[in-house]
């Protein structure tokens, strides 16, 4: 605790980073979603932790990523709505962070939703959410996604015999390729026919971009230095092929098309038209 605020350090602090951008998006008149709880997380984290992402290099990075997180959130909101329309009544959010879809989206009656993340992130989240009612049956599971999380999921009532809508958002970049592979193996083994999978695929290559290198050398103690140490994934295989190798049939929407569809600028950090930018892929897949 610092100044009465719970500390979210290292990779846990990235959950707050995304929460800050969702709070900002929710204040826009042309917002792509409304996450009223995001501001509560930001307030609970307190000024010192907010400052990591809202001052100096952190501010530049947050501004550069804001439109991207808004588009990504809306893309996977729509994915869940479609998976439910197709009959799914079980959802799993891996590395849920401060995701509030359980409280924001209109889930069909009888939907069970599981959220997995690190214990300190979930402790913080549950404290802030005290008294809030989810719009589905919600189960929260503290787990390391590099370890045996499927047995924890089973203990909490996950059913392997019904289709599941999985979400892998904002996590692959933190896992070395071997752990990412194992994660997908485990998801696949637990997926009944008719299951769905939403995946955000970003690799470490982003910290090798011109923009990131410039930021890191301008301020070695800053955000880019921290992210550079946290980002592990170096997978070079196209993500749709990676999913196909595990038995999933994937569709991808380019960030440019997604941005155009929602009348947003292409996020500068990932704009293929700009030299030296990173690449990100958003995919949905069926099995
Ligand atoms: C960038 S945040 C994304 C959170 C959420 N998916 C979202 O989009 O808001 C990354 C999350 O991954 C979680 N995480 C990273 N490594 C993990 C691991 N090995 N096991 C469980 N969670 C992990 C962090 O705690 C953090 O909440």
From TrEMBL:
Enzyme nomenclature, EC number: 2.1.1.-
UniProt keyword list: Methyltransferase, S-adenosyl-L-methionine, Transferase
Pfam families hit by this protein: LCM
GO molecular function, one term: methyltransferase activity
Record flagged with keyword Iron: no
GO biological process: methylation
Function description: Exhibits S-adenosyl-L-methionine-dependent methyltransferase activity.
UniProt similarity note: Belongs to the UPF0677 family.
NCBIfam families the UniProt entry points to: mthyl_TIGR00027 (TIGR00027)
UniProt protein name: S-adenosyl-L-methionine-dependent methyltransferase
Protein species of origin: Streptomyces endocoffeicus
């Amino acid at each position: 605790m610092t100044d009465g605020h719970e500390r979210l350090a290292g990779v846990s602090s990235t959950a707050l980073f995304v929460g800050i951008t969702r709070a900002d998006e929710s204040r826009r008149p042309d917002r792509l979603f409304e996450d009223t709880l995001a501001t509560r997380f930001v307030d609970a984290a307190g000024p010192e932790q907010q400052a990591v992402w809202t001052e100096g290099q952190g501010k530049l990075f947050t501004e550069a990523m804001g439109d991207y997180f808004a588009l990504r959130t809306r893309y996977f909101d729509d994915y869940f709505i479609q998976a439910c329309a197709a009959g799914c009544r079980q959802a799993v959010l891996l590395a849920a962070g401060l995701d509030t879809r359980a409280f924001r989206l209109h889930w069909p009656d009888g939907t069970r939703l599981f959220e997995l993340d690190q214990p300190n992130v979930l402790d913080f989240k549950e404290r802030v959410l005290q008294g809030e009612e989810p719009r589905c049956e919600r189960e929260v599971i503290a787990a390391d996604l590099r370890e045996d999380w499927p047995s924890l999921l089973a203990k909490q009532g996950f059913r392997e015999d019904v289709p599941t809508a999985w979400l892998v958002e904002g996590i692959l970049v933190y896992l070395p390729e071997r752990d990412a592979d194992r994660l997908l193996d485990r998801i696949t083994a637990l997926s009944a026919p008719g299951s769905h999978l939403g995946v955000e695929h970003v690799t470490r290559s982003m910290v090798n971009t011109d923009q990131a290198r410039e930021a890191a050398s301008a301020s070695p103690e800053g955000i880019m230095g921290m992210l550079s140490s946290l980002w592990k994934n170096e997978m070079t295989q196209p993500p749709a092929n990676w999913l196909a190798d595990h038995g999933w049939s994937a569709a991808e929407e380019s960030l440019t098309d997604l941005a155009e569809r929602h009348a947003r600028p292409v996020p500068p950090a990932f704009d293929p038209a700009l030299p030296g930018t990173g690449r990100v892929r958003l995919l949905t897949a069926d099995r």
